[in-house]
Amino acid sequence: MVTGGSGLVGAAIREYVEGTGALENESWIYLNSKEGDLRNRADTEKIFAKYQPTHVIHLAAKVGGLFANMAQKVEFFRENILINDNIMECSRIYKVEKLVSFLSTCIFPDKTTYPIDETMLHDGPPHPSNEGYAYAKRLIDTMNRAYAEEYGCNFTSIIPTNIYGPHDNFSIQNGHVIPGLIHKCYLAKKDNTPFTIWGSGTPLRQFVYSRDLAELTVWVMREYHDPTPITLSVDEEEEVSIKDVALAVAKAMQFDGQIVFDTSKADGQFKKTACNKKLRSLKADYEFTSMPDGIQQSVDWFVANYDSCRK
Ligand code: NDP
């Protein structure tokens, strides 16, 4: 059972499983908020009683951009705490064999050294802008270990870096960097205006294509049995600048107009490199989709689904 099955990662898991990823004896269920509000214990119990899942991939979360995180720390903390507590406790009660939940690199300590790895999650306070979200997510890791110690549960978590792909939220104001750039470039091409990138374009990021993340998440569910988190990310050498990403978006969109960097806008953190050594020790040869290919597929999906996608 996949919670948050209608979102960016959930849709990618569904496409992977319905493509080549399913095993013969499996049947998959994808939840969205219409099926029940996971903040609500009674709704969550009903879902577990109805489907009796043996394995749960837990994606559902209250997620948002910087502004929303700063303005609603109480809601980001409480709603995620409620959702995560309901999913973990129902997974224990209904004897789920494996629970895999999602953390994020943005919940790591604000003041740290790079690259960051799985052992550093609790080594200092998160950035004040998203502390509600960050502490709620960090407690998933604490509770995974507690459930293992006290009840022998097989619960673990995944730390993805920046995710992009089809079915993303392409909002320019509230979305993440790649979907925002894709939407802006689409409008610049349509309106014959410059493609303006916020900031200098120099910050570095690791991006993981949603379909790669989907495949690796299903692998974690089947084969990674340890309560400590595992980072799912491209290698450190694959870190790219926002400028490179913008140029790849322009190429994929066949945009040949002017590209402008608006340096009056903030750049954010220069880099937040994550270490994927644990993943590489278990899956040394996994080949990630190249950024130009992933961006081309995301751009093609956005253009084909412009009228109906989240934006
Ligand atoms: P999306 O925002 O695309 O999707 C969120 C999903 O959660 C939707 O299916 C939504 O259902 C569901 N949901 C939200 N609130 C509730 C609720 N109260 N009850 C039931 N369902 C709910 O998320 P992503 O796919 O981007 O993210 C998946 C996970 O990965 C999250 O845990 C997130 O924190 C984490 N993550 C994401 C990153 C990214 O770059 N996107 C980076 C790092 C971590 P509905 O569609 O019906 O509203």
UniProtKB/TrEMBL annotation:
GO molecular function, one term: GDP-L-fucose synthase activity
Top EC class, one word: oxidoreductase
InterPro entries: Epimerase_deHydtase, GDP_fucose/colitose_synth, NAD(P)-bd_dom_sf
E.C. no: 1.1.1.271
GO process annotations (BP): 'de novo' GDP-L-fucose biosynthetic process
CDD domains per the UniProt record, alphabetical: GDP_FS_SDR_e
Associated pathway: Nucleotide-sugar biosynthesis; GDP-L-fucose biosynthesis via de novo pathway; GDP-L-fucose from GDP-alpha-D-mannose: step 2/2
Similarity comment: family membership: Belongs to the NAD(P)-dependent epimerase/dehydratase family. Fucose synthase subfamily.
HAMAP family assigned to the protein according to its UniProt record, in alphabetical order: GDP_fucose_synth
Name listed for the protein in its UniProt record: GDP-L-fucose synthase
Source organism per UniProt: Phaeodactylum tricornutum (strain CCAP 1055/1)
